[in-house]
Amino acid sequence: KVDFSDIKFGAFHSDHMFEAQFFEGSWKNFKILPFDNITISPACTTLHYGQTIFEGLKAYKNKEDEILIFRMDKNAKRFNISAERMCMPNFPEQYFTKAISELLILDKKWIPNKKNTSLYIRPLMIALDPFIGIKPAENFKFYIFTCPAGNYYSEPVRVKIETEFTRAIKGGVGYSKTAANYAASLYPSVLAQEQNYDQLIWTDGKTHNYIEESGTMNLFFVIENTLLTAPLGDTVLDGVTRDSILALAEDLNIKTEVRNISVDEVINSINNNTLQEAFGAGTAATIAPIKTIGYENKDYDLPKIDSSSLSSKFLDLLDGIKYGSINDNHNWITKL
User: Fold this and answer.
1) What is the longest distance spanned by two Cα atoms in the chain?
2) How far is the C-alpha of 114 from the C-alpha of 173, rounded, in Å?
């Protein structure tokens, strides 16, 4: 029995999962099954060459006990952008949204209704060809499973600016949600955690002079009343929460700049007290205020977050939309 008042992110799975097969050039055999282990060949392409992609989105309950899914259409589109980059078949958006909807209706009891809780939804596609030569597979499976989720971070985070290791490079797969991006981050992330940091701030692979993103989040900085975030590209994921924050900032007439942000600019703004706040934004964490930035063996403490901070305002707005307590003017919610 799951205690919904104390949920560890990703620790429990709901009762069912969705499965579809791709062979002979099309998707077939759509079905919902009890959640269980899967059987694959030890020679399959996914295990050896990382031909796999995934997504992450969340569902919530409102006061009327209805299911609210946040920005499912954007996740479906991003899934297929990743599929194209990884030489995998398109999974049609209408299949994606229908599969999630039917799975959530069946497992509705797994969606918690307490503050700061949700049902995390994980679609994924794996390559199945039992062939160890390096070439794109022709046979695939698509799955969806779900997990009740609480807070990813329980308090503001400590992050370290990474200038040795690289998450992604221009021309690579950094903008795709594929396993390789996350595998490459594990070792430097462990080193950072040993130094008491929660996450890394990744910098550009060529010079390490420019901020890109964090391990589970896009990054925002507020400097002299201007909201800053790095532009999208080969090395930065098109985050759903990032996109939502930019839309809300426009609604609120907040001065915003999407541009390259140098490490020097961030450190100098801390030193001259013009950096007002910094925060991460992602599906797992939603909004994660940053309390400390580590750089070149020195920790820089940031101003404390309060209810007037932009990160607090964005979190309140996003939570209001997700839980159905304020109007969804952007049509981000799918209600079941």
Assistant:
1) 62
2) 37
CA dist 274 → 267, 269, 303 (Å): 10, 5, 10
Residue 3 lies in a domain: no
- Judge if 21 and 101 occupy the same domain: yes
pLDDT digits (tens, 9 = 90+) for 241-256: 999 999 999 999 999 9
Token pair of 298 as six digits: 């020195």
Here the tokens at position 207 are: 């010079």
Domain of residue 66, residue span: 16-149
CA nearest to 83, candidates 123, 41, 43 = 123
Compute how many other C-beta atoms are within 10 angstroms of the C-beta atom of residue 282: 22
φ/ψ of 34, rounded to 5, equals: -60, 140
Q: Are 293 and 286 in contact (CB under 8 A)?
A: no
**C-alpha angle 203-208-212 in degrees, rounded to nearest 5:** 20
Q: At residue 317, what is the residue type?
A: L
Q: Are residues 242 and 279 in the same domain?
A: yes
Query: 164 with 296, same domain?
Result: yes
Q: What would the pLDDT profile of 89-104 be if each residue is shown by its tens digit?
A: 999 999 999 999 999 9
Q: Is-contact 147 10, C-beta < 8 A?
A: yes
- Distance CA(310)–CA(250), nearest Å, equals 13
pTM above 0.90, yes or no: yes
Angstrom distances, CA of residue 26 to CA of 3, 141, 174, 287 = 41, 11, 27, 39
